[in-house]
Amino acid sequence: MNLLKKKAEKKTEQEKVEKRREEVLARGRKFKYPLQWTKHRVVISTILIAFVMVAILIVSGYLALYRLGMTGELLFRITEIVPVPVATVDSKDVRFSDYLMFYRSSMTSIERQSGSQFDSASVEYLRDEYKNVALLEAEKYTYALKLAEELNISVSDEEVKNEFERHLKIGGVDRSEEGFLKIIEDNFGLTKKEYERMLYLTLVKSKVEIAIDENANKIAERVESLLASNDNVFKAVVEQLGDAIIYEETGGLVDNKNIDGGRASEASKLEPGESSGKFVSMNGDGYYFVKLQKKTEAEVSFVSIKVPFTEFDKRFSDLEYEKKINEYISIGNSEANATIEQPE
């Protein structure tokens, strides 16, 4: 009996210990599970806040770009990273960053002169004008990129590099890269990367125009043939081809480093009476032929014939007529009569 009594007492003590243990654990669970639930809520709240912030940024960016027409530095940098479209040309997106690049390259110097040469009303008017022009230029270059893809035309990094180095020496001045980039930043508000983008687009468009403009190629061949048969008499070519070409005379001596599409530079390589033969203008808008009349050490006098490229603009106009160009922004002055000067 004593043995059974001891076992019962022992069992009762174990039960008491286990009961006490459960009580302690139960009290711990009161702190454990609410903490787990709190962590879960924190994670969900953080995700929701992140989604809300992203949504706010997207909406703010949309309003700034597409509704308010803002063109600031921050938005420009964002569009360089995020390839949002400003329009479509024949189903190909026009990069917002290209549009802003062309616009800013035109407006930078004007805005920096605001208050000295331009009043606020004039600056505001010019903003709308250059926005229209910039959008048109971005659309044309995008169409050139589309045609280049279809025609398997490409421009290499080496070609862009060579063009950049040629620009360092425009006007006969052998500039340092650092000095040239300072000029670009001060006058156009562009970095080297952005300037190289403009050069790339210009080279692509030039190659495309040469490839598609069969009429210009035929006229250029006709000019070559006529000059060969009439001892380089330019005016005789004009009489036969008329409005198909553009004839110009300097009317006197001009600087042989004159920025005129490359004509003065080519003329300076000739002797009086010699003609250059066909070459593409520096801005890629046609073929030139020049004939030197007179030259000195620093100046030249010449006549020139230009065979303009027209096929690209014709095709682009057809797209406008067929309503294959869709623009996502609205600009105050819908008609722009000027053109942006591209790198030559």
Contiguous helical run count: 11
Number of strands: 8
* Count of spatially separate domains: 3
pLDDT < 50 stretches: 335-344
Q: H/E element string?
A: HHEEHHHHHHHEEHEEEHE
Share in helix: 55-70%
**SS content category:** alpha+beta
Query: In what range is the share of β-strand residues?
Result: 5-15%
Largest sheet: 5 strands, antiparallel
Shape type = elongated
Average pLDDT for all residues: 82
Rg, Å, rounded: 35 Å
What distance lies between the first and last C-alpha atoms, to the nearest angstrom?
Answer: 116 Å
Written description of the protein model:
The chain has 344 residues and is of the alpha+beta class. The protein has 3 domains: 1-68; 90-213, no CATH class; 215-309, no CATH class. Helix content is 61%, strand content 12%. The protein is built from 11 helices and 8 strands. It has helices at residues 2-67, 73-81, 96-112, 120-151, 157-168, 177-188, 192-212, 214-229, 234-241, 263-267, 311-321; strands spanning 85-89, 92-95, 246-249, 254-255, 279-280, 286-295, 299-308, 325-327. Strands 3, 4, 5, 6 and 7 form a 5-stranded antiparallel β-sheet that branches. A 3-stranded antiparallel β-sheet has the order 2-1-8. A hairpin with a 5-residue loop joins strand 5 (279-280) and strand 6. Helix 4 (120-151) packs across helix 7 (192-212) and helix 5 crosses helix 7. The radius of gyration is 35 Å and the shape is elongated. 26% of the residues are buried. Mean pLDDT is 82; it is low at 335-344.
